[in-house]
Amino acid sequence: MDDESPISIWFFIGVALLVNGALILAAGIYDLFHPPAHRVVLSELHAGIWWGGILLGLGIFYFFRFYPRRGSDGRERVQKS
């Protein structure tokens, strides 16, 4: 356990962005097909869909970019910068 390297904080930020982006995007798509009775100003821009998609894309990028990779022997591989 002493030779394990820590997991990057950016991996966890990617997970948070991915989850929040998916929730916001789902809510935006739901509002697109089931509009509320009282619409807000500029609701035709569908901000939930845009921001949900952006957050989801960033989350996917950070998730895969900083995913803790392991070698065939179970140890973490060193990434060259």
What profile does the largest beta sheet have? none
What's the rounded overall pLDDT mean?
88
Shape: rod-shaped
Oligomer: single chain
How many β-strand runs? 0
Strand content: under 5%
- State the helix count: 2
The Rg value, from CA coordinates, equals 18 Å
* Helical content (DSSP H or I, runs of 4+): 40-55%
> What string, H for helix and E for strand, traces the elements in order?
HH
Label the structural class. mainly alpha
Alpha-carbon distance between the two ends? 25 Å
Task: Provide the low-confidence segments as ranges.
Answer: none
Concise summary:
The protein has 81 residues and is mainly α.
Structure description:
The chain is mainly alpha-helical and 81 residues long. Helix content is 54%, strand content 0%. The protein has helices at 9-33, 47-65. The mean pLDDT is 88.
Brief descriptors of the model:
81 residues; mainly alpha; 54% helix; 0% strand; rod-shaped
Fold topology:
Elements: H1 9-33, H2 47-65
Helix pairs in contact: 1-2
